[in-house]
Amino acid sequence: MSGHSHNFLKLVNDARSRVREIPARALAAELGAVPNAKLIDVREESEYAAGHIKGAEHIGKGVIERDIESRHPDKSTPLYLYCGGGFRSALAADNLKKMGYDNVVNIDGGWRELKDLLPVE
């Protein structure tokens, strides 16, 4: 966290106060218990291309608010978001909540932890 600015961390912590968050190690069990869950990688396209969790859908943080309704029109669909460490995905999850998505989960630890826990592509 030391590489992030104070104001960015304030923004992330504010978003985290409004979204459900799980640790990366809990994701496999959650996905197993929620068969219609969607795993969404909100990192940059180049990050996704370099490696991502098997089966994850890419919708970058820069366009997720624009594209989510066409990709997932049912606002009750369970959406699990991750980024590199859980910061950008917290911001994206908060915005999806504001758009009426009521089953959004941020994955704390993001890619940095998930890559060692789940199959990658």
From TrEMBL:
Give the SUPFAM superfamilies listed for this entry: Rhodanese/Cell cycle control phosphatase
Rhodanese domain location, by residue?
33-119
Checking InterPro entries in the record gives: Rhodanese-like_dom, Rhodanese-like_dom_sf
Q: Write the record's keywords in alphabetical order, separated by commas.
A: Transferase
The record's section on SMART domains has:
RHOD
Extract one GO molecular function annotation from the record: thiosulfate-cyanide sulfurtransferase activity
Concerning Pfam families, the annotation shows: Rhodanese
What PANTHER family does the annotation carry? Answer: THIOSULFATE SULFURTRANSFERASE PSPE, THIOSULFATE SULFURTRANSFERASE RDL2, MITOCHONDRIAL-RELATED
Supply the name of the protein. Answer: Rhodanese-related sulfurtransferase
Species this protein is from: Hydrocarboniphaga daqingensis
